[in-house]
Structure prediction request, 427 residues.
Amino acid sequence: MATRLNRRTVLAAGAGAVGLSLPGVSAYADDRRDISVRFTLNAQVLDGGEQVTSITIGTGRLGPVDPAGLTTGTFGVHAKATSPFPVPAGDSLSGEYDLDRTVTAVRLDRHGDIVLELSHGEGRTGGGTLGYLAREGRNVMLDLTYTLTQRAPIVLRDHRSVVIKNFVQNPRLSDPEVDAFSHHVSGSGMKYRLYSPAADTRPHRSGRDGRPLIVWLHGGGEGASLPNGYYDNETTLRANRGALGFATPQAQRIFDGAYVVAPQSTSYWMEDGPRFAPLIREIIDEVVRRHRIDRDRIYVAGCSNGGYMSMKMTTVYPTLFAASVPVCGVVASFPVGAPPLIPDSELARITTPTWLVTSADDTTVDPRANTVHAHEVIPGSLLTLYDHVIWNGHQFLGHFSWIYVARNDPSDHGTHLWQWMASKHRR
Prediction:
């Protein structure tokens, strides 16, 4: 399924290069047509969300390119990101941009295609793939239009020079981690993504038949925006590394090859947890029915809205999960003055092994009224309470404590979170 990209053809060429009569150009293009090349935007989900990190230009078919002739100035890159639909009156969309991207390096890949590495990183603007609707509190995939400009000829190994006149953007965004999750729709119409472990006929280290299943429940920003007809099955994986973390080689080794499923709410879980619980259960049952899943090793984890839903699932289905990991979840009154989302009487009856995670500087969900309180009430639960959310030297908002879970950072007496989860079997 193609991601939501602007499908317009992007045509651009350097003003100086187009008018040049360069030796070898006519000799190479013996049919005397303009040279047209497709390019692909390559993205990566950082801890703070997905960014376009490089561009692959399909030059391999032109002939062997001499890498010595390539510099960061050979191509210019302009990027424009806009809303996928008209922004409703009274709402605003952050994350849009219209700017030049900096090329930091240029190389050839194994296919002979040119790869432009782009400046990117946590906290930098102008490279993201998501926008945020402020009033609705939703992430949406931006329409991305990139324009390439060739500023100097490409020199082939046989010394011919090539000037590309037409650059055509591939409508599909390439992100191998995200693309590893297949698209699905449940019988009730709820969308979900599924990571399937590599086929392996060897006996599992656990000696058990079937693979574990990890259920990741997204935060409030990754649900659908149905008033706008927007239900993409994409933002659940692109807004953070919550689900992706469990599909990394490290996690797959720890869990001995696990399926990872990420349902997408039609709104947000906290809107009606009791209604959503059976819809999530239906997805779990579908995956179990269609794949070799060990029913004694089904785990649930989620952040913020999904942290609430993780706990709610263990109250509704007390014997379904081997372990639960609610991250900065909500249990207190929402909105203020309403009854608690999950009353103490329900929390006290949770028997699923539970490890809660939050940060003390979370200003979105009060950590003490929610996560710390839940830890005090859920029998035998573990708690990791961070002071701040800092990873690789970058400090994130205090609400982003799911970053630590996606990196297997929480530990208790020397045992890290993923290892703790993998050791748990349904009672």
About this structure: The mean pLDDT is 91. DSSP finds twelve helices and 25 strands in the chain. The longest helix spans residues 273-290.
